[in-house]
Design goal:
The protein is mainly alpha-helical. It has three domains: 1-36, no CATH class; 39-142, Beta Complex (Methuselah ectodomain, domain 2), CATH 2.170.180; 156-463, Rhodopsin 7-helix transmembrane proteins (Rhopdopsin 7-helix transmembrane proteins, Up-down Bundle). Helices cover 47% and strands 10% of the residues. A hairpin with a 4-residue loop joins strand 6 (51-54) and strand 7 (59-62). It is elongated and about 85 Å long. Its main location: membrane. Keywords: Membrane, Receptor, Transmembrane, Transmembrane helix. Residues 156-416 form the G-protein coupled receptors family 2 profile domain. Residues 433-449 have a biased composition (Polar residues).
Length: 488
């Protein structure tokens, strides 16, 4: 028999049970508090014996015997019966620091800094992991929570928040530069890319707000932020999946083909239903289950806003609603990336027209761009959640993902056609005339033109499809040759 209030296991010869009552040989088990008449009140300790509250991760942490707080007592009065457990409610908050002089030993009630008196069954006490303070935990409905500052002994939070804000700026710049190149607006890949960047921008913005605010955001605002971050990050990964599929489909046989406008629109509608609809269903189910009455089954309830404006710290829920779907998408993206990179490298490096070191280096740059555009580095984010471990192991990859917007801007926003559009806009504002120095068409009308990969993709795709020659021998020679720039 396990006595949860005492965190004690009683062997079968030492207790008996009736329909609703269990009698325990308390004195034989060292639990004289169960029948000691001098105990006049009860005080609850939140976490349990040899446990403490970890402010950084907002959870109870087990102490080893070498820890300074191991075996420490919060209340030492002989008149107080000590039990273990949190108050019975949906959400707990820190009401303040515990002061021994504010405890009434005759009733077990405690007075907090605001002057409010909490009854014995309305609160519990627990020491901090560093042993410097004892917190009073209570139900949210009993008192307004206070913000307990977290001592950042590492620079992770500042670095992540700074990286996310920088990423938001560059993602906004990516959207702005994309709208300057009007010739790309009909391209299917550009549309998918725009949705992806917009979702990532919103998700990064609210995540940066959470990182910077610490624990100052609580209540409905915190819950709403958690729902927004959840939905838009899910949508970002689903749009990323459509981009990866579109890139793979384009280069699967190194023969890009054009689509009719009706086909482009049809495929875009399918992508929209998939990339907006599935995240909406997942996030909607999570919100519905999270708002079920407490009397109903609490299975797979994400409990948004209870842990740093995110999911409650339960692996099953966050796996079901976030890391599970995202992990599947990233695995598919990884396969598509491997197939595309193989077509570009193993397929082209062995061709007669790709021999020089310069051409091979160009192919290598394309593959590096694919790593960014297809979001391969996000795999490390899922791996860090699965394998856990010390934070410094994943510090570099986490920072890379936090700065994802910078890399996207470098690949997408720093293209020659973007700079040309900026120059045209600047000259139109200043009244200068712009001389067209480009030769030949700059953009393909194909839905497969990929602005993210560079201008030369669309140039040669269009040129190869429109340029003809009257020399039949030249036609035969070009039939089986795909210029490297077409896929670069």
């Amino acid at each position: 028999l396990f006595l949860s209030q005492k965190h004690t296991l009683v062997s079968s010869p030492e207790y008996c049970v009736d329909e609703k009552v269990a009698l325990v040989c308390a004195r034989d088990n060292g639990m004289d508090s169960l029948q000691a008449p001098e105990k006049t009140s009860s005080v609850w300790r939140c976490c349990g014996p040899n446990l403490a509250y970890d402010r950084l991760n907002q959870t109870c942490a087990k102490l080893d015997q070498t820890h300074v707080s191991y075996g420490a007592k919060i209340v030492t009065s002989a008149h107080v019966d000590l039990s273990f457990g949190f108050p019975a409610c949906k959400e707990h908050v820190i009401a303040g620091n515990f002061k021994p002089e504010n405890l009434r030993e005759d009733t077990g009630s405690v007075t907090i800094d605001s002057g409010k008196i909490l009854a014995s069954n309305e609160y519990c006490l627990e020491q901090a992991l560093d042993g410097k303070a004892v917190y009073v935990f209570t139900c949210r409905e009993h008192v307004q929570p206070i913000s307990v500052p977290v001592e950042n002994t590492d620079v992770r939070f500042a670095l992540y928040a700074a990286g996310l804000l920088v990423s938001v700026i560059f993602l906004g710049a990516t959207l702005a530069t994309g709208y300057l190149v009007t010739s790309q607006h009909h391209v299917l890949h550009w549309r998918c890319q725009t949705h992806y960047v917009a979702c990532l921008l919103i998700g990064d913005l609210f995540l940066a707000i959470v990182q910077l605010s610490g624990e100052t955001i609580t209540g409905p605002a915190c819950t709403m932020i958690a729902i927004i971050v959840h939905f838009f990050f899910l949508a970002a990964f689903f749009w990323l999946n459509t981009m990866c599929f579109n890139i793979w489909w384009t280069f699967r046989d190194l023969r890009p083909t054009s689509l009719e406008k009706s086909q482009e629109i049809c495929r875009l509608r399918i992508y929209e239903v998939y990339a907006w609809g599935v995240p909406l269903v997942i996030a909607g189910v999570a919100v519905i289950l999270d708002n079920l009455p407490d009397s109903d089954a609490a299975y797979l309830r994400p409990r948004f806003g209870e842990h740093k404006c995110w999911f409650r710290d339960d692996d099953l829920e966050i796996l079901t609603y976030f890391y599970g779907p995202v992990g599947i998408l990233l695995f598919i993206n990884l396969l598509l990336f491997a197939s595309t990179a193989r077509q570009l490298t193993c397929g082209l490096w062995k061709r007669d027209d790709v021999k020089s070191t310069t051409e091979r280096a160009a192919l290598g740059r394309v593959c590096m761009k694919l790593v960014v555009v297809m979001g391969i580095t996000w795999v490390a984010d899922v791996a860090s959640w699965v394998f856990k471990g010390p934070y410094y192991i994943w510090l570099v990859t986490d920072l890379i993902n936090a700065l994802q917007g910078v890399f996207i801007f470098i690949v997408v926003g720093c293209q020659p056609q973007v700079w040309s559009a900026i120059k045209r806009l600047w000259n139109s504002k200043t009244g200068r005339s712009l001389t067209n120095t480009t030769h030949g068409p700059q953009h393909s009308s194909s839905s497969h033109g990929l602005p993210s990969m560079g201008e030369s993709i669309t140039n040669n795709t269009c040129t190869n499809n429109t340029t003809t020659t009257t020399n039949s021998q030249a036609n035969n020679n070009n039939t089986n040759r795909v210029p490297m720039e077409t896929v670069c």
